[in-house]
Amino acid sequence: MSPTARPRSRIQQRNREVILDAALEVFSLHGFRGATLDQIAEVAGLSKPNLLYYFPSKEEVHTALLTGLLDTWLDPLRAMNPAGQPLQEILAYVRRKLDLARDFPRESRLFAGEILQGAPRMRAAIEGDLRRLVEEKAAVLTRWMDEGRIARVDPVHLVFSIWALTQHYADFEVQVRAVLGSEHDPFSEAGGFLETLFTRLLTP
After folding, report:
1. d(Cα 85, Cα 93) in Å, to the nearest integer?
2. What is the pTM of this model?
3. Are residues 38 and 130 located together in one domain of the fold?
4. Cα(93)–Cα(113) distance, integer angstroms
5. What is the domain range of residue 36?
6. Do the domain assignments include residue 98?
7. How far apart (Å, rounded) are the C-alpha atoms in residues 5 and 64?
8. Percentage helix, strand, coil, to 5, in the chain?
9. Which residue would you say has higher pLDDT here, 69 or 85?
10. Angle at 124 between CA 121 and CA 128, to 5 degrees
């Protein structure tokens, strides 16, 4: 019987978490195509047959990671409050996205790798949940613009720009740190810069 067909024991749950964390490390470094089950098993400290008991293929490990990641990625945008003060809500969203890039760089690189491959395992979620959420928040942004509370810009491209300007610090972290030097904290410096940038862009 598959371990997913009945409630998992604490050991089984722990082993799944160990495998997924090891897979996150391997996939974020090597991408889906470059990663192997042998590498994941080695990082997890488990035998390959033990790993295969929980995940019968590399595709299943990757899909499990991406499924858990999507909610993490959508939550900062979900938290944008339509009843809040517009500029404060947008700046708070920028900060949440930057914090996500700082705290979950491997997850960001995993997501970026999937998108660069054409999103073969996430296309349905991107065209479904992600698109619907962006459309919902774009309507909120448009209402705020119509009310004159923020400057008028394309709301969807505003969201895209926030993604690009925050996730860059995770996806290109090596480059960012190499250019800035070890004496700089890129995330704290980026926070102030992005706040100024979006405040100037969106102030009516």
Report:
1. 12
2. 0.82
3. no
4. 23
5. 10-56
6. yes
7. 16
8. 75, 0, 25
9. 85
10. 145
